[in-house]
Design brief:
Layout (H helix, E strand, L loop, with lengths): L2 H19 L3 E6 L4 E6 L6 E6 L3 H6 L6 H17 L6 E3 L8 H11 L5
Parallel strand pairs: 1-4
Antiparallel strand pairs: 1-2, 2-3
Length: 117
């Protein structure tokens, strides 16, 4: 099995567990150059809020989106947008990525921004 397939298998197991909880989830996707975050409703059919390093405001302060400080900025922005939409409690879906580096920086910044998970 290659790295991508292994990650997708881990992600599928996590999503099944979160689906059983029927919780709103904060999902993260990471590439070498950017990081993306979405808050998805409990049914999995609607994106409530989204943020990424591709946004104009984030790119103005962090031109290189593949760094921890850019991920922390995305975490703050997703927390603000989720709270504006009325969401404070989420389940963290790291999509099979290890909880380390940019994924961890995003999660900690989202917690500091007021999201509980």
């Amino acid at each position: 099995m290659d790295k991508k397939v292994s990650r997708q298998r881990r992600a599928a197991k996590t999503r099944v567990r979160i689906g059983r909880q029927e919780a709103v989830r904060l999902t993260v996707h990471r590439t070498n150059q950017h990081i993306y975050a979405q808050v998805i409703d409990a049914t999995g059919g609607k994106v409530i809020a989204c943020a990424s390093t591709l946004e104009k405001e984030v790119r103005a302060t962090h031109p290189n989106g593949g760094k921890k400080d850019a991920a922390a900025e995305v975490g703050k922005r997703i927390a603000e947008k989720a709270k504006a939409a009325g969401v404070t409690q989420v389940a963290f879906d790291r999509a099979g990525f290890s909880y380390h580096g940019r994924v961890k920086a995003l999660a900690e910044a989202a917690r500091e921004g007021g999201l509980k998970f």
